[in-house]
């Protein structure tokens, strides 16, 4: 038995085969056999092989009677191998003389099933040297020694880092392992991606693996054969797609036949990475005019989600290149080309893994394309003669302005450079001083690099108020506001026309010179204010004063008057004409330079380190006071300063990095008081969840306390297939005058309208109220095919029963107010499967919230959805939203619904998948209500059980009315809402007094 078997696949390689065979005969190690399998070559391969075998008996020819492809050629070679170890060599590659000797020595010292060695890359047919070096570096990267399932998982599973190097030609295998592996492989022809399939099977059956990349004796000729970057036709690419697909199918079959190996994530990883490699051919080797045809071939083989993901990947990568490169026109054009091709692929909403991966890449590409728009804004910035620079070190909202121009500071190696901003390290700069100089690095950069008529400076939180309205200020002389938005831009005159109108009237604009006897804790003088700052050094102010007096003696009086006076402007915010700004910089920066070089900062705190920035605020005041004193005749203007407490962009939720399970996105809405109920509902869902799915649970809220959020996150860690996140939607509702027709319902009821915007990366979402119990697996509900409808919902038997009440008021309401063609299609909105992709195409958030402002609607959001989605609803099985018997309505009201509807509802009560406590009777107010025992089964296992019990006691301190037939909308606020504390005792729910007041209110508004 030879030590090593070398298995060579040869097909029509007459040009290279002799070189390959010579490299075998010239090995310094002699104990080997070379099994050369001629796959029915039609050239001189057989003759070359015959002659070499006559000269070297270690060369053993094997001939296929007909061509079978690379995989089956290797399979034949393995069957003939008799060595203790074996490795593969392609017929157009060769070995360095010491290769076998090095492998034999290493395997003797460290016997393993798989010894992974290195490679030397030789470029052929025009392959660039840089490409060769990159390919060689990738294949020679050290990998971890490992055992068991880690061998295959380290190569293929994304969760393990996916090393991806699955070339079987760089591995020395125990021959017994190879024979076992190939016996388990398909006997069908495989090509192109066969390496990945073969390596997967072999690695899955191996027990030990070792890396030996120091040995680089395999000499790979990059550019020969099917490798390289030579152009291929769309028809040829279609063949590639089929070949890859056959390899993927073979890998899946092996995984299915060997469930104990648990290989699904590895098969997925192989398929995903190999598809990327295949798509790279589409990018590089297919002419642009043929790309659409090639994409169609890929679509027909792999389907829309997989194909679209790769096209969006190219869109993403080119958009990023356009953002980060100085000459970005080519990348921009290609990004737009790929986007056009991607937009042509319609990807249906499925919610499976492939759909999730597609959406993740698409939304990132769309984000970068949006950033490209802001990059183009920089071109319009340059055309402005008034330029107000907004210093920022983090991602913030900006106003729609060409005058106000963001500048990113605090940059260092590895910093993410905001594409929508200038950067203070470009051109001549002092960016490295930003920890000490703060916003002054922006001022210096503008001074040295920007040409304008007016130069202005403000901060990402603080802006000038250019309006003519005097706004109320706080004790620090600032106007306080929440968000940077269209609304606040209008309020503070922050539009370019108005800014330009104001600026051109003056030479210098600053924030107000406040009276320190009245503001900022009434310290009285700038000197006293500095001395009161606990982290600033008094000596620094004195030394700066001395430097100023030495360098500019004519400013001494102004400095004394300033420090001993009681007036100052703050924040280093100003706007100056060019000649004044340049004069100021030429005066101020040398002072700080002198201070800087004579200061030892080694023991300074972080705040003390910012001393030059603090000093510059004082220097600005002194400079301006001096020119007022000497009569420079500048036109001055003081504008109020508006401070935005939340300048950050609206919170953007990101897609989950989950690829091993299909994701079920679920949304709830709640307030702080409703947390116990929310917890119970989510807990019931997860107790019945299918572990084969991953549940992405998002809670839309405005005021849930952080400690409760943390408590919930900790509690739900028991479910590894779940993610819980909270997002504040207050900003999304800012500017809308929303109201409800029930005093105990707040704007939480409208949150479901925001889902399509808050979760843009999901095209299908499950929305659930927080007063339900879930007995079934909501993955089954989510996976119901919506058939392109806007949403899926269960009909509302409460409403339908009211339609048949003799007085006909509800029927008249449905037809005249809701304008429904078929009122019996009215659905309950507490359980919704939302086609958010279609909803985005049909309605904007503004439209939804405008509809919601219609005070003629009784049931607010539910009425809005019914009025605007009629005819575009898939009606779900009744068991997915079984409303409980509240106040005897099943026997008194529901029975009035159409017979078939009533029967279907009653049947659903026998096996409810979701029980909905929609009405005034809740388990936490009436523990004996319908289906209450089901609720408490889950509630008692949650961390808020005691709070629910407290609410039971509180609710039963007064009698709860019964016998109410009128349907009650779900209370979107918690039981402790202050509105309810006032209204409920005076007008109990269901009481005549409450109904009378409601009737009066409707009459006042002209409703019946």
Automatic annotation (TrEMBL):
Q: Does the keyword Kinase apply?
A: no
Q: Which PANTHER family did the record assign? A: GLYCOSYLTRANSFERASE 8 DOMAIN-CONTAINING PROTEIN (PTHR13778), LIPOPOLYSACCHARIDE 1,3-GALACTOSYLTRANSFERASE (PTHR13778:SF47)
Provide the alphabetized UniProt keywords: Glycosyltransferase, Metal-binding, Transferase
Query: Which stretches make up the Glycosyltransferase 2-like domain?
Result: 5-133
Q: Which organism is it from?
A: Bifidobacterium adolescentis
UniProt cross-references to InterPro entries, sorted A to Z: DUF4422, Glyco_trans_2-like, Glyco_trans_8, Glycosyltrans_8_dom-fam, Nucleotide-diphossugar_trans
Gene Ontology MF terms in the entry? glycosyltransferase activity; metal ion binding
| One Pfam family from the record | DUF4422
Q: Quote the protein name from its UniProt record.
A: DUF4422 domain-containing protein
Domain DUF4422, chain residue ranges per copy: 387-627
